[in-house]
Amino acid sequence: MRATYRVIALLIAAGVVLQAAFIAVAWFTVLHDTDSGAVFDKNSANWGHIAHTVVGSGIIPLLAIVLLIVSFFARIPGGVKWAAITFGVVALQFGLAAGGYFAPVVGALHGINAFVLAGVASVAARKARLAETVAPVDAADRVTTA
Q: Could you tell me the residue range of the domain that residue 109 belongs to?
């Protein structure tokens, strides 16, 4: 379970990197297309915007939920805490994305929070990696002193 926890946390962090790539492609495509005479309006979309939406509103939140569930079984010191923080940061991303439509400056916070998400997911993965290197203590291995 520790390896599963670690992989899911790393997938979340990697998803953030993909998100940055997708939104960059999306807006550079808009710039390229408008330079070529196309018009961009609320009905316009390109594959970068669609991929950003699919990964950001579907895959990453699903991974965050799975990470939180797995954290209860993985027996990683601090694992539940870091999975919960990761989940909370993902939830905050939704609020910041929605807020960005009403106040574009909030969109900047959405971008900054993405880096926070990558960071906390990486910390969760590191906690799992460290837990994998420590041998579990069995009840039979404990020395009791009276």
A: 2-30+53-132
